[in-house]
Write a structure and sequence with these properties.
Pfam families: DNA_photolyase (PF00875), FAD_binding_7 (PF03441). The model has no long low-confidence stretch (mean pLDDT 96). The chain has 3 domains: 1-131, Rossmann fold, CATH 3.40.50; 133-168 and 206-269, Serine Threonine Protein Phosphatase 5, Tetratricopeptide repeat (Alpha Horseshoe); 273-428, DNA Cyclobutane Dipyrimidine Photolyase, subunit A, domain 3 (Orthogonal Bundle). It is built from 20 helices and 5 strands. It has a 5-stranded parallel beta sheet, sandwiched between helices. The protein is globular and about 75 Å long. It has 429 residues and is α/β, with parallel strands linked by helices. Helix 12 (251-269) crosses helix 17 (356-367) and helix 14 (305-317) crosses helix 15 (322-335).
């Protein structure tokens, strides 16, 4: 006789507390078998096997698993393609239902449709829930039911319909898990990855940072940002707890959380933006795509100290300050006239908090081809940005300490680059 269980499939929600799908699995009345799949389709695309993000996931799962051991259960981890894993699991257990939280990326939607079809053929319900956002899909739309494509009206509507029930935490009893002997999760080496220098810590909401977020967030030398991007990306913190905290302590940080959901609903409604400009007329831009200049940008050797500092911080740590992300991205698209997709792909390789919707949305915003109302003729001057946001050069000196000793002639003049960008964009449009 197979044991009757329901499956909870962890994905972008690597926590036990305040987890909607997990709560629903538990109240089903059946023992909950928790699983995680190291998806071969995703991992095989990662060329560098010392990937901090994979290590972060591994450590977060290990922490979660230790908690499960205290309740007489364990996390089952698998390595393979999700459909193949479910083919294995359905042979071992009498599955009464599969539960998980929704993902809105195009490939994830296709994956879930495939799993749903497979389970439905076997009479197994595939139950998905909203968890990683406050509002999803068409929750926030215009009066004519079409999606918002500009942030400000979206944000106003988002705030107008927000109610305490939207961000109230959900209680997750931890006594209903399937009882089993403790099992260590798969080692990184088992699927071709290696340990890195990242150390997983349970994320927390730091009042000292968030209360002054609006005053200090733009100054990279202060490093006064939450660093919660990776926690939100992999769900080691609940979005509901973040929104509740932001409502109490800082409206500007709340606006950043709304930007996150804005880009997610854009990706959901317009999946073509993964490879295409939201404003299709921008596909006519005659990008120079000089590979030598692209490599200099990647390596932080453009001759612009703040651009080079940002790229070096990214390469060394997997993180880059938000303001500097805008400066470096604008420099690539406008100063070097290199296709935003090149930069987007490079950030996707390097960023710890890489999120397809946000990365794509912000790169298109900088390039002027995105869904928001950013004019193409807005071109950040790296020198002016430095004077305004890093006047004492504390950020530059931290990440580009040799800039004074090895003074490099900028690979392009700001004025000449600006004029060229305006000319090329105007011709295309």
């Amino acid at each position: 006789m197979k044991d009757k269980v329901v499956i909870f499939w962890f994905r972008r929600d690597l926590r036990l507390e305040d987890n909607v799908g997990l709560q629903q699995a538990i109240i089903s009345g059946y023992p909950v078998l928790p699983i995680f799949i190291f998806d071969r389709d995703i991992l095989e695309k990662l060329e560098v096997k010392e990937d901090r993000r994979v290590d972060y996931i591994h450590q977060a799962l290990s922490s979660l698993n230790r908690t499960l051991h205290n309740y007489g259960s364990t996390l089952r981890t698998y390595h393979g393609k999700p459909l193949e894993i479910f083919e294995i699991i359905t042979k071992i257990y009498d599955i009464q239902g599969v539960y998980c939280n929704r993902d809105y990326e195009p490939q994830a939607i296709k994956r879930d449709e495939l799993i749903d079809s497979y389970l439905r053929e076997r009479g197994i319900q595939f139950n998905t829930y909203k968890d990683q956002v406050i509002f999803e899909k068409s929750d926030i739309v215009k009066d004519d039911s079409t999606p918002y494509t500009v942030y400000t009206p979206y944000s106003k509507k988002w705030k107008s319909v927000l109610a305490p029930a939207n961000y109230a935490p959900v209680r997750v009893p931890l006594e209903q898990f399937y009882k089993s002997n403790p099992v260590k999760i798969k080692d990184l080496e088992e699927f071709g990855f290696q340990k890195t220098d990242i150390v997983f810590k349970q994320p927390n909401l730091d009042l000292a940072i968030i209360k002054d977020y609006d005053k200090k967030r733009d100054f990279p030398g202060l490093d006064h940002t939450t660093h919660l991007g990776i926690a939100l990306r992999f769900g080691t913190i609940s979005i509901r707890s973040c929104v509740a905290f932001a409502l109490k302590h800082n409206e500007i940080w709340l606006s950043e959380l709304i930007w996150r959901e804005f880009f997610m609903q854009i990706l959901y409604h317009y999946p073509r933006v993964v490879a295409d400009s939201f404003k299709t007329k921008y596909n006519s831009i005659a990008w120079r795509n000089n590979e030598t200049e692209f490599q200099l940008w990647c390596l932080g050797k453009t001759g612009y100290p703040i651009v080079d500092a940002g790229m070096r911080q990214l390469n060394e740590t997997g993180f880059m300050h938000n303001r500097v992300r805008m400066i470096t991205a604008s420099f690539l698209c406008k100063h070097l006239l290199i296709d935003w997709r090149w930069g987007e792909a490079y950030f996707a390789q390097k960023l710890l908090d890489y999120d397809l919707a946000a990365n794509n949305g912000n790169w298109q915003w900088v390039a002027g081809c995105g869904c928001d109302a950013a004019p193409y003729f807005r071109i950040f001057n790296p020198t002016a940005q430095t004077l305004k946001f890093d006047a004492d050069l504390s950020y530059v000196k931290t990440w580009n300490p040799d800039y004074e000793k090895n003074i490099q002639i900028p690979i392009v003049s700001h004025e000449e680059a600006r004029e060229r960008a305006l000319r090329v964009y105007k011709q295309a449009l």
